[in-house]
Hints:
The protein has 16 helices and 10 strands. With about 400 residues, it is of the alpha/beta class. It has one domain: Alpha-Beta Barrel (TIM Barrel). An 8-stranded parallel barrel has the order 1-2-3-4-5-6-8-9, surrounded by 5 helices. Helix 11 links the parallel strand 5 and strand 6. Helix 12 (about 270-280) packs parallel to helix 14. The protein is globular. Bound molecules: ligand 9MR. Ligand 9MR binds near residues 81, 169, 256, 289 and 346. The site of ligand 9MR has 8 residues, from loops. Belongs to the glycosyl hydrolase 10 (cellulase F) family. This is Beta-xylanase. Keywords: Carbohydrate metabolism, Glycosidase, Hydrolase, Polysaccharide degradation, Signal, Xylan degradation. It is an enzyme of class 3 (hydrolase). GO terms for molecular function: endo-1,4-beta-xylanase activity.
Amino acid sequence: MKLRRWVSIATVSLATMAALNTVPATAGKPYDPTKQTLGALGLRHGLQIGTAVDIAALNDGSNPQYLRITAAEFTSVTAENAMKWESLEPTRGKYNWGPADQLVDFAKRNKQSVRGHVLVWHNQLPAWLTTGVADGSISKQELRELLRKHITTVVSRYKGKVWQWDVVNEAVSDPWDNPPTLHYKGFWAQHLGPGYLADAFRWARAADPKALLFYNDYNIEAFGSGNPADDKTQFVYDMVRGLRAQGVPIDGVGSQGHLGTQYGNYNTFQVIEALKKFTALGVATAFTEVDVRSQLTDGVQAGDSEEINPRLQASAANFSVLMKACLAVRSCLSYTVWGFSDRHSWVPGWFDDPPEGLATIYDENYQAKLAYHEIKSDLMLAGPPYVLPRITPKPRR
Length: 397
Ligand code: 9MR
């Protein structure tokens, strides 16, 4: 009786796994989830696990670990810098496709999806463009046409090869900006007005009818006051709702997930709630640039484990909160880390007063950190019956 009961439970759960397409090919070997990569575990949920890729590191033959882990551990890749406008068109009219093409080819060889990053952003613009606008040799009308051409050229080149495009990045100010009331900020809003957002999505859609088109931003992991004047998540939510209401082809909201252990941190349910609210607008969601940095105090720099350990633990907990929220909300299509190793992270170069670092899931010697193990266990333990297959929206026309 006992045995029969066990057998029938096993049969039901195998059937459930099969129905959900989650039975891994075992070829006779018992399936051991603890031995799987992040990417393989993500696939059980239909969730892509990605990383930002530094092409120079990928090409550095003296550092084979970087390429090995990029290929083995992830099912999605994002160019950390190679698809930004200044990288693609450093000289007006002369595109440098090499590094971006290389990443797209690498992804194909390794059966990975590509998140395209980024079409419209106020940073890392080519100098010829910003100086031309500043000295008046590029008019507003010409600027708008240059943007249309850029989006069309880049999206067309990678048509069918890029899964999700970050069409517009970081268009909204922060409460610490001046004025503090949230507003559309930066080069594009300043020169073209906020109408550039709708234009950009429409131009991207015209160039690739199938790619999922995302708005991407930081500090939108959870809602705050609910007042769009000081709650950035609410501002972005209202913006996306407005764009959808106008029929703008926006398919997703990317929440970057740049967190720090020194801040008050979110709990999983606050993040789930935010993802669900965006989902209710009919869009996909994703974590697009996750890392969790810490201050490198004198003690941390001196190797004091009493200062290092709590930071590694807090970092792991934050990585895990975003992963659990993503697993729990079916619109969340991918979870991308912004570099996987402390050897290649934007954090130390960016935050130097006080210095910050320790932001990724592997240390400088490519050893997996607690954060790696925690998100892996999240992926593993959210196994059957708690598998929620993803729901991908139809790209909007
Ligand atoms: O990681 C990128 C770093 O190498 C660049 O120097 C920096 C320049 O602004 O951009 C970093 O990536 C950013 C991403 O493109 C958009 N969101 C914030 C990321 C970290 O700054």
